[in-house]
Amino acid sequence: MVDSVHMLLKRWQNLETKEVELFEEFTAISSEVISRTAFGSSYIEGRDIFQMLGELAIIVSRNLFKLRLPGISKIWKTSDEIKSNQLEKAIRDVVLGIIDKREKKLNAGEIDDYGNDFLGSLLKAYHDPDESKRITINDLVDECKTFYLAGQETTNSILTWTFFLLAIHKDWQEEARKEVEMIINETLRLYPPVINVIRKVERQVTLGNLLLPPDIILHIPILKIHQDPRIWGDDVHLFKPERFSEGIAKATNNNAAAFLPFGLGPRSCVGLYFAMNEAKITIAMILQRYSFTLSPDYIHLPTQILAMRPHHGVKVILHPL
């Protein structure tokens, strides 16, 4: 993570103009970090995966609430369905190529085992001598795709919106050099990467005064909960990182379950600490070198394409310290 941020800072140091578009910059760095830490490769090697997953995310987002008659896809496919199938196959081929490369290194004696990164752990599970613990090749490929997409999208969202808010509230840039955690939490409250999640009820359960039957779908509106004045107070729409100065429970009127940017409980995001560590490292290293202000060309239009992103990007003007 540190090496990847050093590469970013070196590139910024050589810029003729000090105006940068952060969403694009953080897309590159978060992709680089995922490639290096989880798959032992470089961003260039995984670039095709990120590009295709990005295209697939756009297709999924624009079809999320479209309904089609059951079985109609077997008779007639839309252009989006055809394209998504092509992307799915192409992504699988690239991931299988990365897996094959790792296995060939082991067989050739270039490495002693599959490695201690994410890919190595998956390969060990794929080859587990205990068949009951073994995962399938489809499991392996799907886990890789999920980590590539979720790991990149969430971290990029956190970084982009944190720097956007710090560019507006310049006084907090100095505070961030001392304590970055509560600033990230406040960013996640105002701009959570995922604005809602869906859960299926497996068996009858009582939730407050409600009796929920099995097989119904629950929609959990994270963004709505994060901006509910009954939980956060009348200043709910203001950027106030100090609300987290005494922890999440105090910030939410002793209702810590109301803060769920990465979900909650046993189904919370497995990449939570990965994303938070990357965000802290990146923010700390950039703030050691620069202060920044929002570009006058900035147009505010948050858009949900799997994760919340700025439709027109976030341009800032860098001021070397």
Automatic annotation (TrEMBL):
Membrane disposition: Single-pass membrane protein
Listed GO MF terms: heme binding; iron ion binding; monooxygenase activity; oxidoreductase activity, acting on paired donors, with incorporation or reduction of molecular oxygen
SUPFAM superfamilies named among the record's database cross-references: Cytochrome P450
Cofactor(s) recorded in Swiss-Prot or TrEMBL: heme
Binding site for heme: C269
InterPro entries recorded: Cyt_P450 (IPR001128), Cyt_P450_CS (IPR017972), Cyt_P450_E_grp-I (IPR002401), Cyt_P450_sf (IPR036396), Cytochrome_P450_Monooxygen (IPR050665)
Keywords in alphabetical order: Heme, Iron, Membrane, Metal-binding, Monooxygenase, Oxidoreductase, Transmembrane, Transmembrane helix
GO cellular component, one term: membrane
Location within or outside the cell: Membrane
Calcium among keywords: no
Pfam family of the protein (one): p450
Family: Belongs to the cytochrome P450 family.
Annotated protein name in UniProt: Cytochrome P450
Organism: Eucalyptus grandis
